[in-house]
């Protein structure tokens, strides 16, 4: 698992070379499988019926739409 400071560091590093190209958005409860397991413990336990994190799709579309406008 990774902590938020690692994501923030990566975002800042990318933006230092390419300003405005990287962003960091938190989707509460989402695991690395893009499902809403709620906690790291549940994600590691492999909750099989966790719903898809719809917000990640919405944020991805928002990111690409912004990139197309810029």
Structural overview:
This protein is mainly α. Helices cover 51% and strands 0% of the residues. It has three helices and no strands. The chain has helices at 4-17, 40-45, 54-69. The chain is flat, with a radius of gyration of 14 Å. The N and C termini lie far apart (33 Å).
What labels would you give this structure?
mainly alpha, flat, 70 residues
How many helices? The count is 3
Average pLDDT number: 90
Could you give a short account of the major beta sheet?
none
Characterize the overall form.
flat
Order of helical and strand elements: HHH
Low-confidence segments, given as residue ranges, are: none
Binned strand content: under 5%
| Helicity range | 40-55%
- Say what oligomer this is: single chain
Any idea what the radius of gyration is?
14 Å
Termini separation = 33 Å
Q: Quick one: how many beta strands?
A: 0
* Structural class based on helices, strands and sheet pairing: mainly alpha
